[in-house]
UniProtKB/TrEMBL annotation:
Annotated protein name in UniProt: DELLA protein GAI1
Highest classification ranks of the organism: Eukaryota, Viridiplantae, Streptophyta, Embryophyta, Tracheophyta
Keywords annotated in UniProt: Transcription, Transcription regulation
InterPro entries: TF_GRAS (IPR005202)
Annotated stretches, region: SAW: 510-586
Length: 588
């Protein structure tokens, strides 16, 4: 049973929103009720059983599937991929060098600040040295790079081919970065050099691609001037960006729009012209990450990353509670809770050792009533399965208030902890993170599943943050264009870009110190941090790995999605750029 592969259909939110055929129907009905921020308007989840219906709950081994998985793994190991992550030893040989993965260059000593003060960077951002020497940050985004020592798990075969498909957003950024490094040695302060340097340099690109590269060149010029605190000159380049870029344009124009907007705000902050923005700052930004509105639903439906990490994590949990009678699941960010119907279905179908109680405890610092409504829906679903179930809400105003006794773990309960994209919200407040981890350790969970953003957006250096963020969001914007670019989904793509990514870019680029709350760190930082609490990383089973590869294949855009192993951790990416990490842990 421990290796059994539970079955599912990918999240079909349309089927559990009270019978609405489309998101549009749900939105129209909810607009009449004034509840557009609620995820579901339902009384039962009968149709959600389709999540677990297609493949059946496998009790037997899966030799054929594993053989297929191994073959795909071998094929992927032979395929080069791009990883534009390490920014400390960039080396562009030529613009046309094949895209290849690179090895993360940062060593453990580079994360001492994240160990002594967990994941927290001191406020030492000034001055911002975006000089010619700093342009070496762009050199890694091209040829002459090392191959990433990761184990490829999915067969990605959609590299740009000799017949010249259109460059992706991230590839445009790479070309622009290469040209910027090349021309940096020629440029002075002559604005016209930037205007006309592309005529002979971008042969082979289409007219639109050339315009995109030039636009990114202006953005990089503006960022350099901001880094050097030459705000008047930066403003000239930003004006050019703002004239061309648009939040309704192509992906390059859209991402330049949001980064230019963030740079403009940074100039205003530095020159004392920033008047602030309405809202509750930190709380509003963090709440965005936990939102369950229509844009979030569309992302669940159309983007592979979330479903891959959710279902693979659930598979791992199922395996570690396979023979337990009393199961206590602690969810640190339950959101809609819809993912747990998959676990409930798997437990209800269990042939051996029937479950005497499944208890879910949702820890929240946000709307308690909303979480309680989620609990009611889960209780209704459990009742339809005849599954003994209880749901508890632990509400704390701040995570540092969490205590072991609030979680009410009872004897004979096997505990599993689920932390989806939540630990990152506490990086600016390492004392909160410390409290949370110490409480979890006292629970002695059989497994803790962690999903995080696989990116380095926590550097005190404006230069590093800007370039890391630019390439990361370029990959994500391209993903949104491919997966949500249709006319029917474009409104949700625009909402996602504006509400989630736009605000994240703004905070990451424009804010400093305690105001900079949008921070991400890579898996090696989390490993160093978790080791302080005696946590040991666990291997994902072959069933879990197969589950992940199966999810990817069910998406039309799955060929662009990469699944890799970084040690025992899974990395889900887009065309080779890491997006999310999924890891499993136990306490020693």
């Amino acid at each position: 049973m421990a290796e059994a592969l539970f079955s599912f259909e990918p999240f079909e939110f349309n089927g559990i929103q009270g019978g609405y055929g489309t998101l549009e129907g749900y939105e129209k009905d909810n607009s009449r009720k004034g509840k557009q921020d609620h995820l579901f308007g339902i009384e039962d989840w009968e149709e959600f059983e389709s999540l677990c219906s297609q493949y059946g709950l496998f009790q037997e081994s899966i030799p054929d599937k594993r053989a297929h998985f191994s073959k795909a793994q071998q094929q992927q190991q032979q395929s080069p991929r791009s990883n534009h992550w390490a920014l400390d030893e960039l080396q562009f040989d030529t613009v046309s060098t094949p895209i290849q993965p690179i090895q993360e260059s940062k060593k453990l000593e580079d994360f001492q600040a994240g160990i002594k003060e967990p994941l927290h960077e001191p406020n030492r951002e000034k001055p911002y040295p975006f000089s010619l020497s700093s342009l070496e940050l762009l050199n890694n985004y091209g040829g002459g790079v090392k191959k990433l020592k990761r184990e490829n798990l999915s067969n990605i075969s959609n590299e740009i081919n000799a017949e010249r498909q259109r460059l992706s957003t991230e590839e445009v950024m790479r070309v622009a970065g290469a040209r910027y490094v090349e021309f940096s040695s020629q440029r002075g302060d002559d604005f016209t050099l930037h205007m006309h340097a592309f005529g002979f340099a971008l042969m082979g690109l289409s007219q639109e691609e050339t315009k995109d590269v030039e636009l990114v060149h202006f953005l990089l010029s503006a960022a350099e001037k901001v880094g050097c605190q030459q705000f008047e000159r930066a403003s000239r380049f930003l004006t050019r960006c703002e004239w061309i870029a648009s939040d309704t344009g192509n992906p390059v124009e859209r991402i330049v729009f949001y980064f230019a907007k963030a740079l403009r705000e940074k100039i205003d902050r530095e020159t004392g012209h920033f008047k602030g923005f309405k809202g509750n700052g930190r709380k509003d930004l963090i709440d965005l990450g936990f939102a369950t509105n229509l844009a979030s639903i569309a992302c669940h439906q159309d983007l592979p990353f979330i479903q891959v990490t959710q279902f693979t994590g659930i598979q791992a949990i199922v395996e570690h509670v396979a023979l337990s009678g009393k199961i206590h699941l602690v969810d640190l960010a339950i959101r809609s809770g819809v993912q747990w119907t998959v676990l409930m279905q798997a437990l209800a179908d269990r042939d051996e050792s029937p479950v005497s109680l499944l208890k879910i405890t949702a820890v929240t610092t946000m709307d308690k009533n909303h979480v309680e409504e989620t609990g009611k829906r889960l209780e209704s679903f459990a009742k339809s399965l005849n599954l003994p179930f209880s749901f508890n809400v632990v509400f704390v105003t701040e995570m540092k208030e969490l205590k072991e006794e609030l979680l009410a773990v009872e004897a004979e309960e096997v505990v599993a902890v689920y932390a989806p994209l939540v630990l990152r919200s506490m990086i600016p407040r390492p004392d909160y993170l410390d409290v949370l981890m110490r409480v979890i350790k006292k629970l002695s969970p059989s497994i803790m599943v962690v999903t995080e953003v696989e990116a380095n957006h926590n550097s005190p250096s404006f230069v590093t943050r800007f370039i890391e963020a630019l390439f990361f969001y370029s990959a994500f914007f391209h993903c949104l264009e491919v997966c949500m670019g249709s006319t029917t989904k474009s409104q949700y793509r625009m909402m996602t870009e504006a509400m989630f990514f736009g605000e994240g870019i703004r905070n990451m680029i424009a804010a400093e110190g305690e105001e900079r709350v949008v921070r991400n760190v890579k898996m090696d930082v989390w490993r160093a941090f978790f080791s302080r609490f005696g946590m040991v990383e666990m291997e994902f089973s072959e069933a879990s790995l197969y589950q992940a590869s199966l999810i990817i294949k069910r998406f039309a855009c799955g060929s662009c999605c990469s699944l890799e192993k970084d040690g025992k951790c899974l990395i889900v990416g887009w065309k080779g750029t890491p997006i999310h990490s999924l890891s499993a842990w136990k306490f020693t």
